[in-house]
Write a structure and sequence with these properties.
Length: 437
Amino acid sequence: MRIAVVGTGYVGLVSGTCLAETGVTVTCVDVDAAKIEKLNHGQVPIYEPGLAELIEKNTRGGRLFFTTSLQEGLSDADAVFIAVGTPPDEDGSADLHYVLGVAREIGEMVEKYIVVVTKSTVPVGTNKRVKATIQAALDKRGLELEFDVASNPEFLKEGDAVNDFMHPDRVIIGVESDRAKKVMERLYHAFILNNTPIYFMDIPSAEMTKYAANSMLATRISFMNDMANLCELVGANIDAVKQGIGSDSRIGNKFLNAGCGYGGSCFPKDVKALIRTGRDYHYDMQVLQAVEEVNDRQKTILFEKISKHYHGDLRGKHFGLWGLSFKPATDDMREAPSLILIEQLLAAGATVTAYDPVAMDECRRRIGDSISYASEMYDALKDADAMIVVTEWQEFKVPKFTYIERALKEKVIFDGRNIYSPEQMREFGYVYYGIGR
């Protein structure tokens, strides 16, 4: 079976590579010639554990190809995946410019029956627009050609995307014809053999499932952060509360960690887009509006604690910051809480030296040299008035506290991810601030 994947960003590259790993012949297409050139030379443009090895293996095995030519990708393809970006517009809606642009080009080039699969996260109704765009291009060519559209949303966690794709909880596929369903069953044959739950449904329901899933997870995070802030006020411990409610089988223990807010490429964008979809249909998504408001506020929580500790005067203070990416195991800094915190600290007259295992180049690209960067985690703390943890990288969880003590001017830690024990910190003589405990 042959497919094309248009877009070699995070979703397209992971999806195409993993499908090649199952035996499908995949051609990944991108307009960025420099990126394609790098991929053809084994250079992976994103950080994702295990991805580089799979790309090298499947390229060498003749199952994975990279090109700038959509025509080449469509040649003999049974399906083409649209996996380009859908950034948020100013009004919060998803920008479908790239998705519909690819649809138009497919209509201008396709020569035989094909299933056009939307992999990008798109609002309900987008596949109708994709279908209409392709049909308009075919009509312009005077060509009567059958094709189908399908929705196959991704559920990938950055930092564990390869495992998520190869061993998914479920695969969601929206189709509107038996012919399209058979093509998608062939494509996911390896997953069917492994007894992976495959749920076929109508296309609008598949489109909505993606947004509903991410919005539910974002809701859990914001709820726990709201609870954490209340726990501090009443003298409760959010860790104990998490344990108490997480043991309820109706609730479960996933996505219940309190912290300094969520970021990334999915949750903020998808929550905004679903709120906007509601407005388009004259419906107020009140819960999600609150989720977004709580998260925006939570991204300022560390600065509020820092400012309060220093009585509102941070002029001349220097901070060592651990973690820049929005979560561990990725260099992604989109909507990262660290960016908000750094901006606030600098505006208050403080200086910052940061360390992150993989995201420092991305941080330099975003904010330049407005802060300093350390090549080693303990060096970031040298002569700092306090240490701040923003991302819960594994190497931060059991540090050498004697090294921290030697580096810091004062034994003060602001822990934005609750990775240290307050009791142990007190035993070690630190002034310690966590979230909700």
